[in-house]
Design goal:
Shape: elongated
Distance between the termini: 48 Å
Mean pLDDT: 77
Radius of gyration: 35 Å
Low-confidence stretches: 589-596, 617-626, 700-725, 749-760
Helix content: 55-70%
Length: 760
């Protein structure tokens, strides 16, 4: 009886232990899923991105400050010897720039420049694999710190847009470990546009201006659902960036980055608005001139073959020479004394945004001896002379310095130059260079001053109008210089784009494959072209477009047909056939001697088959005319293609032949297309790619399609009766094609049946 009680108690304890263990496992799994779902949320990603970029921006500023203070320390401690001063003033930036160029070139050449042209191209749908890697991130951060620490007229804002995009891409890869949603490519591209706003915000502590700048400068079409993401991430970044300044005791509390205290009761007179308008127009001309000068310098170097070959061999020589030239001209005891060369960019901005009046009625005021404004005073020349010399010299120096192969931007140098011209209208020159209006909002957040919103907006809008009519933006100019596959903007007032149709610019000789083609056709298509996708037609006679197939799928079909498994199967079948033939030709005898001979003969054939297999598979170059291998491959290539296991896009983007160029540009920009098929009642008649569209927009079509009628315009301008008859014929053909397509179906991808799934 006691044994029975013991067994019952032990059984109950076992059941209780198993049930509690199952409950613990279930709770653990649920907690794990809950944590994964929470970590995979957008707000977690945006907080991590904002905090990381704010910390990184602060660290980069800290490194730049150490480099600049070191240069000043060497200059001050060598006052007794002017030659040593000059040597230290010139050698220090040359070493930093050379290190930046060499390190970037060795680790990741994609980190050179601002990075905004590449990000714009990626956001348009073009794949640039090496632009969002960890090596590019490291090269960009270290190279930018060294380049800006040299004191050259370079900017931080544009490279940090690229750095923020790199951080977002790397964070997406990390977050994909917690949730599969971050493996979605289209969603990650949306997060890149958010990262652009973060990049601007962590430089100027301007979340609103950063988001608006990312919309204007980076995106052709902006997704509305990204608004809250951009505002949230940019706000976290700006807040953390200013908190770090307070923590480092650089600031007492969280304020604007460069606060001002202009008059609020009477900020400007109504009669001054025409003066602001004139300044806006002048800024537009200056911005267009800056973009043109930068492009001309690059083209001058590239067109001179001798200089180009020399610089290609000595890649570090060009940045060293440019730095030597700029440093020599800005040497303070030399020519630099006439343009406040002792001040850094941030110190110059502080002096230009203070509330001190520099002159009254044309007479310069006396500056405080303890302030940075004293650097603008010269005993022999007027303060206006120093400002003018600074604007002229820094203008071409900045355009020249941007051509160096180092991570750099142009927003801050242009911003500083604009401040030299007039304080609150610096946004006009920056907006003219970048073709953005959001620079005005950046200025308001940067200075904490919004009283001049009306005159600043007038100046910025007029500057944009002038600059856009003369030159592309700086980023579009760099895209053209780098020859990136980017679709240019249509511009203003080009009514001829509505008169040009797709049939006027499309390619009519289209490479395609048919539903009843053989593997030889696939082989020929792969050899003759380099297209990423190919059109799949019903037949060469009907030209009905059924879908499109990627090049990788065609290669997979050929590999499946001519690959090693089919070769082995063929050799095994052939060996089996030879064995059967030998058995039939040598019938068995009573003593069994024939069976032994058959076994020996089979082993010999097996060895021959192995040797033959080695020659066929391991030595594919040994192919003699009329050999067994050639005959087998020819037979395989002549077989009809089986599309059952092939992934086919049944609905590729299609345009009709009468689609206008303006509408085609909108579709390509909105969907990020690389190409689109042109059909007429389902029949393939051509294809238009990004290249043809770009040529048409840039004016490669005869006389831009303005004075010369397009080739097929006469058919579109036919009479009303002809149009009616044409429409009736098209409707009749459409009904015929519809009835035919109901009787046929596309090959479907092989899917596992329900029984297979259950067995799995």
């Amino acid at each position: 009886m006691c044994w029975l009680v013991y067994i019952v108690v032990l059984t109950d304890l076992t059941h209780w232990y198993c049930s509690s263990k199952c409950c613990c496992c279930l709770c653990t799994v649920r907690c794990q899923k809950f944590l994964i779902s929470c970590v995979g949320e957008d707000w977690i990603f945006l907080i991590l991105l904002g905090l990381f970029m704010a910390l990184l921006s602060w660290l980069v500023d800290f490194g730049i400050g150490i480099c600049l203070q070191s240069q000043k320390w060497m200059y001050v401690n060598l006052e007794s010897n002017v030659f040593l001063q000059y040597l230290a003033w010139v050698t220090y930036p040359v070493v930093l720039i050379t290190f930046s160029a060499g390190f970037t070139q060795l680790l990741a050449p994609q980190a050179v420049g601002s990075g905004i042209p590449e990000i714009k191209t990626i956001l348009r749908g073009v794949v640039l694999k090496e632009c969002l890697t960890f090596k590019t991130f490291v090269a960009k951060v270290i190279g930018l710190t060294s380049a800006l620490g040299s004191g050259m007229p370079l900017g931080k804002e544009s490279p940090f847009v690229h750095i923020a995009s790199l951080g977002a891409a790397l964070l997406c890869k990390f977050m994909s470990l917690f949730g599969g949603i971050y493996e979605n490519e289209s969603r990650n591209i949306e997060l890149l546009s958010v990262a652009c706003a973060v990049g601007v915000s962590c430089v100027f502590a301007a979340p609103i201006g950063g988001l608006l700048f990312s919309i204007e400068a980076m995106s052709t079409f902006f997704t509305v659902r990204n608004y809250w993401r951009g505002f949230f991430a940019a706000t976290v970044t700006a807040f953390m960036y200013r908190v770090l300044a307070v923590w480092n005791r650089d600031e007492v509390t969280i304020t604007a980055l460069l606060p001002t205290n202009f008059r609020q009761d009477f900020p400007f007179d109504l009669q001054e608005l025409p003066a602001f308008a004139v300044l806006g127009i002048a800024s537009g001309l200056g911005g267009a001139l800056f973009v043109c000068l930068n492009r001309q310098i690059v083209q001058l170097i590239r067109n001179q073959k001798t200089i180009k070959k020399f610089l290609m061999k000595k890649r570090l020589l060009y940045p060293a020479l440019v730095t030597l030239l700029v440093s020599t001209l800005t040497f303070p005891p030399g020519f630099g004394q006439f343009m406040a060369a002792k001040l850094t960019q941030m110190e110059s901005l502080e002096t230009l945004l203070d509330n001190q009046t520099w002159s009254k009625q044309g007479i310069p005021e006396e500056f405080d001896s303890n302030s940075h404004s004293q650097a603008w005073k010269h005993p022999q020349v007027n303060v206006f002379v120093t400002l003018t010399l600074f604007v002229v010299m820094k203008f071409w120096m900045s355009a020249l310095a941007m051509t160096m192969p180092v991570p750099c931007g142009a927003f801050m140098p242009v911003f500083v130059i604009g401040k030299r011209c007039v304080r609150m209208c610096a946004a006009a020159l920056s907006g003219a260079v970048t073709h953005t209006v959001s620079t005005a909002v950046v200025v308001f957040e940067l200075t904490g001053q919004i009283s001049h919103i009306l005159p600043v907006m007038i100046a910025v809008i007029l500057a944009n109008a002038v600059a856009q009519s003369l030159q592309p933006s700086l980023y579009d100019s760099l895209i053209m210089i780098k020859k990136l596959p980017y679709l240019p903007e249509l511009g203003w007032g080009h009514h001829e784009y509505y008169n040009i149709c797709v049939e006027d610019i499309m390619i009519r000789d289209v490479m395609y494959i048919t539903l009843n083609c053989c593997y030889r056709d696939l082989h020929d298509v792969l050899l003759t072209g380099h297209l990423k996708t190919l059109a799949l037609l019903e037949s060469s006679e009907s030209m009905i477009l059924l879908g499109s197939i990627e090049r990788a799928q065609i290669q997979a079909l050929l590999s499946l047909q001519l690959g090693r498994p089919r070769r082995l199967k063929y050799l095994r079948d052939r060996a089996t056939a030879e064995k059967r033939l030998s058995v039939v030709s040598h019938p068995s005898s009573e003593d069994g001697s024939t069976m032994v001979n058959q076994e020996v003969h089979f082993q010999v054939n097996k060895v021959k088959v192995q040797i033959h297999l080695y020659k066929m598979w391991c030595l594919p170059s040994v192919l003699k005319p009329g050999s067994v291998k050639e005959e087998w491959e020819e037979n395989q290539l002549d077989e009809q293609v089986n599309f059952d296991n092939c992934m086919i896009d049944p609905a590729p983007i299609q345009l009709v032949e009468s689609t206008s160029l303006h509408k085609t540009h909108t579709i390509f920009s909105l969907l990020g297309l690389d190409h689109a098929y042109v059909t007429s009642i389902g029949r393939l008649i051509g294809v238009v790619s990004l290249k043809e569209l770009q040529k048409a927009i840039e004016g490669s079509v005869a006389v831009k399609g303005v004075n010369v009628r397009p080739p097929l315009a006469s058919f579109r301008d036919s009479g009303t009766s002809g149009t009616i008859m044409n429409n009736e014929n098209k409707a009749r053909d459409l009904h015929k094609l519809w009835n035919r397509r109901k009787l046929m179906s596309l090959p479907k991808e092989h899917r596992a049946s329900d029984s297979d799934e259950k067995s799995k």
